[in-house]
Write a structure and sequence with these properties.
Length: about 220
């Protein structure tokens, strides 16, 4: 972690939005593309660790709370790695960790005085993280209620299906190939859809407002 007083000057911190963007895209797509034991057993856990590291870069400004946030995410990862008896608790903890990171990312973006390419990538990070949180929560429900979704692979093998379903829900595409079957799953679908739409509206409105303000100052 970067606890020195000039952490903003460090190249890793300066490009933290881009680093997070690359890591989370790798996490979402590379294990699925490999579609093998190599992807599931080694590549996916590796990207979990990289995602944890990249997420910690986002919360570095929360100096007093950063250690507690890091412990929360690390314990969630550890429980996920340990196996079936603890994976549900691990999913809860890691979902909370990613939610905190997403909130801090959004708060940091709203506080920016100008909008550059780095901030645009950061806004994309936030939207993708909302979808990823949705997939983690869908997986948790899937593990608790094995018949919560139609056309989803059993157990943790269904994660790739639920990542797809989470983003299809957020993007309001609605193919209908995966359908929530229990009340908890249906409620979460509504929540993820609402949060995704509100995120887009708020971020776009904020960015347009800042762009117009900067344009008026230059004029």
């Amino acid at each position: 972690m970067l606890f020195h007083t000039k952490y903003k000057e460090h190249p890793v911190m300066r490009y933290r939005y881009i680093i997070l963007f690359v890591v989370i895209l790798g996490k979402l797509f590379i294990p699925v593309i490999l579609n093998s034991n190599l992807g599931n057993r080694y590549i996916d856990p590796l990207f979990d660790v990289l995602l944890f590291w990249a997420s910690m870069l986002i919360v570095q400004k929360l100096r007093r709370a950063v250690m507690a946030i890091g412990v929360l995410g690390a314990v969630g990862l550890l429980f996920n790695f340990m196996g079936r008896s603890t994976d549900k608790f691990g999913l809860c903890l890691f979902s909370i960790f990613i939610a905190i990171v997403t909130y801090e990312l959004f708060r940091d973006l709203v506080g920016k005085k100008s909008i550059q390419i780095n901030e645009i990538v950061g806004a994309m990070d936030g939207y993708i993280l909302v979808g990823y949180i949705g997939s983690l929560m869908f997986l948790l429900i899937h593990l608790i209620y094995p018949n919560a979704f139609s056309n989803v692979s059993p157990g943790r093998a269904g994660m790739s299906d639920l990542i797809y379903f989470s983003f299809v829900t957020m993007l309001t595409i609605g193919y209908g190939d995966i359908v929530p079957q229990v009340p908890a799953a249906r409620s979460l679908v509504i929540m993820i859809g609402l949060v995704g739409q509100f995120y887009l509206v708020i971020v776009i409105a904020t960015f347009v407002g800042k762009f117009l303000m900067n344009s008026s100052k230059r004029g």
